[in-house]
């Protein structure tokens, strides 16, 4: 059963396999910018990466200028890492115009199976619990997969800015996800 879980070192080998599939392409919502893929092959370094992702949800955690607190979640099925999803707790100027509240990516070998749409559905109640009543979702004008993911989840198009389509989703209007996709963000990283 696919789940949204907190980042956890137990997915180390599967996470590395997935990262290799991205082959240098950015993993949206992964929080891996600035981390060397080579370094992350080391379990201790990966543990620091995982802890950094978890700590980013805490307001008091030091972060780069222009960055806001963020909850990182992983899409997994059993021991298999499927993708990443990030919920930014608030909007700054950049996020309001282009980035939005929620970013995600699915590993190439697991695409077109409904994972992104279901993960976003599972993330919306979590966003609501973080105090986000209206979630802003954005995608590139030519990103048909992300556009369909957002529209399937009730995204209401507002406008396009700098090549990004901007949609709002009322998180109170979204029902809990179907049984097939279980959100378990409290799953501790051990
Ligand atoms: C966009 C992305 C997350 C979609 O993931 P996914 O798990 O393949 O998406 P799903 O299987 O849940 O598909 C959701 C909808 O998008 C459609 N879709 C997915 N990929 C598509 C594509 N390449 N072209 C057209 N439609 C696509 C699906 O058909 C489905 O719509 P439907 O139910 O009406 O048929 C994935 O392609 C990805 O990781 N891309 C790179 C990162 C990225 O662009 N992230 C989004 C940043 S805003």
Number of helices: 5
Tell me which CATH architecture applies here: 3-Layer(aba) Sandwich
Would you identify the CATH H-level superfamily? Gcn5-related N-acetyltransferase (GNAT)
Unreliable residue runs = none
Attached small molecules? coenzyme A
Assembly type of the shown chains?
single chain
**Spatial sequence of strands, sheet with the most strands:** 4-3-2-1-8
Mean pLDDT: 93
Percentage of β-strand residues: 25-35%
What Rg do the Cα atoms give? Answer: 16 Å
Portion of residues within helices: 25-40%
**What is the H-and-E element order?**
EHHEEHEHEHEEE
Query: What class, by secondary structure content?
Result: alpha+beta
CATH topology: Aminopeptidase
- Shape from CA axes? globular
Tell me the total number of β-strands: 8
Tally of structural domains: 1
Q: How can the largest sheet be summarized?
A: 5 strands, mixed
Cα(first) to Cα(last) distance is 21 Å
**CATH class term:** Alpha Beta
């Amino acid at each position: 059963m696919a789940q949204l879980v907190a980042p956890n070192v137990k997915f180390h080998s599967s996470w590395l396999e997935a990262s290799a599939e991205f082959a240098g392409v950015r993993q949206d919502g992964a929080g891996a910018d600035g981390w060397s893929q080579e370094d992350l092959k080391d379990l201790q370094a990966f543990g620091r990466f995982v802890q950094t992702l978890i700590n980013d949800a805490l307001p008091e955690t030091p972060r780069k200028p222009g960055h806001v607190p963020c909850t990182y979640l992983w899409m997994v099925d059993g021991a298999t890492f499927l993708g990443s999803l990030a919920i930014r707790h608030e909007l700054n100027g950049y996020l309001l115009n282009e980035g939005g509240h929620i970013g995600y990516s699915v590993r190439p070998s697991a695409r077109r199976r409904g994972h992104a749409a279901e993960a976003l559905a599972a993330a919306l109640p979590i966003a609501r619990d973080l105090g986000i009543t209206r979630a802003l979702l954005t995608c590139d004008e030519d990103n048909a997969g992300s556009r369909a993911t957002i529209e399937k989840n009730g995204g209401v198009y507002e406008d396009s800015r700098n090549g990004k389509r901007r949609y709002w989703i009322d998180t109170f209007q979204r029902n809990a996800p179907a049984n097939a996709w279980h959100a378990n963000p409290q799953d501790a990283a051990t």
